[in-house]
Write a structure and sequence with these properties.
Bound molecules: acetyl coenzyme *A
């Protein structure tokens, strides 16, 4: 309970808004969302068009620069990112030191924060050329770190980047290339990964982006700010839902068991994972695109029987009054885990994929923050509910 006296103590007018549910923390021109209509746009371009026609690197350029690149600009950008894909050998050494069972997100977060010690020049955030260099580096190195983390957890030797390949093909090569030197990922799988990265590239002031902005507002270097974002994404309430969807589908096991499962959800025994969203009160536009991408992926990898359960589950839920009245629709996580699994990723890598996809969004928001003259250091108020002044009690009298 908040007492009137407590409110007085915050000093002037203040709102009490835990989780900033109703408080805008910044002005931003990066991403537009209309949750009621199910609209998502990056710099004004609908996500559906970007997923169909663009590439992840082109979308990264768009997010960072505000406009789609010309052919020359895209060529230069692709060249610059490709140039920075390799890691300093000592970063590799750092990663070798992690326990064999370390979570890949923990390895990613620590290694990205360690990059700030390799590039101390990153602290000069006022220089636009320097910001360009650091953002390029980070977008280039995230897949290499993610792939090394995966190989480390498998006890396999690291595979160095192949700069002849596209961004996503190179990532798949670093992950899955074994002893056969002829490994090449199927183009349809590369395209599916490209689409998934595009869909995750930004989502305005979500928890991890808010973390990047909050830490970045102290004017620290971008590696430290993005490491904070990775930490936020690591949490199960943010990045972990697609893994929970897979577990749920496995537990349901057969379409015959769906009515019993739905009855349990309606009784409040558990949630239908991959359904519902704080912002979308309509079909999450990203879920629609992923659902379509499932067909292309399963054409290559063979059908996953869990897809049949997911499709039937969605059909039943969307006709059920419980879900309709609460505006609960599939979100981005409902189908993404199925694709990641088909691409041979173990569940603990799902959030790493999310982080690689989200990196250009984090950096676009960080850049916007750095040049925004109105932006102040993040420092919310509190409503103090503890004791007021009292005298120290000597040990013998407690
Ligand atoms: N299954 C069953 N009921 C649900 C679900 C669900 N997945 N989601 C919400 N509800 C119900 C709630 O119980 C509540 O019912 P009530 O009014 O009878 O109490 C009502 O719908 C409103 O739900 P809230 O929890 O108030 O919605 P909120 O916006 O706070 O939560 C959230 C959104 C956390 C995503 C929630 O829908 C959920 O837990 N979904 C499952 C987990 C999930 O898929 N998370 C991924 C989100 S996408 C992302 O993070 C990238």
């Amino acid at each position: 309970t908040i007492r009137a006296a407590d409110l007085k103590k915050v000093g002037g007018l203040a709102t009490y808004d835990p989780g900033f549910v109703n408080t805008a923390s910044c002005r931003s021109a990066v991403t537009f969302i209309d949750g009621d209509e199910g609209i998502l746009e990056y710099r004004g371009y609908p996500i559906e068009q970007l997923a169909e026609h663009s590439t992840f690197l082109e979308v990264s350029y768009l997010l960072l620069n505000g406009e789609l690149p010309t052919s020359d600009q895209l060529g230069q950008w692709t060249h610059d990112v490709t140039h920075h894909t390799f890691l300093h050998e000592n970063i590799k050494g750092l990663m070798t030191g992690f326990r064999y069972d370390a979570h890949p997100m923990g390895m990613l977060m620590s290694s990205v924060s360690a990059l700030s010690t390799f590039y101390p020049d990153a602290s000069d955030i006022a220089d636009p050329a320097n910001r360009y260099l650091q953002t390029t580096r980070m977008i280039a190195k995230m897949p290499t770190i993610g792939a090394f983390a995966y190989r480390h957890s498998q006890g396999k030797p690291y595979v160095y980047p192949d700069n002849e390949l596209s961004y996503c093909a190179n990532f798949l090569s670093m992950l899955f290339k074994m002893s056969e030197p002829t490994y090449a990922a199927d183009e349809r799988l590369v395209k599916a990964l490209e689409v998934l990265f595009i869909l995750h590239a930004d989502h305005e002031q979500n928890c991890s982006t808010n973390a990047v902005r909050s830490v970045g507002s102290s004017q620290v270097d971008p590696y430290s700010a993005v490491a904070a974002g990775i930490g936020a994404l690591y949490g199960p309430l943010h990045g972990g839902a697609n893994e929970a969807v897979l577990k749920m589908l496995r537990r349901i096991g057969s379409t015959d068991n769906i009515p019993g499962f739905i009855a349990g959800v309606k009784e409040g025994k558990e949630k239908l994972m991959g359904f519902g969203h704080r912002v979308y009160k309509n079909y999450d536009p990203r879920a629609k695109i992923i659902k379509k991408a499932c067909d292309d992926v399963f054409e290559v990898t063979g059908i996953n029987p869990l897809l049949e359960i997911a499709l039937e589950l969605e059909k039943i839920a969307l006709e059920d009054e419980y879900f309709v009245s609460r505006k609960l629709y599939p979100n981005v996580d409902f189908y993404s885990g199925l694709i990641y699994e088909a691409l041979q990723f173990p569940p603990e890598m799902f959030t790493v994929l999310f982080a690689i996809g989200r990196t250009p969004g984090w950096l676009a928001q960080w850049q916007e923050l750095v040049v925004d003259k109105e932006q102040k250091i993040a420092r919310p108020k509190q409503i103090y509910t503890g004791h007021r002044t009292r005298d120290f009690v000597p040990m013998g009298q407690r």
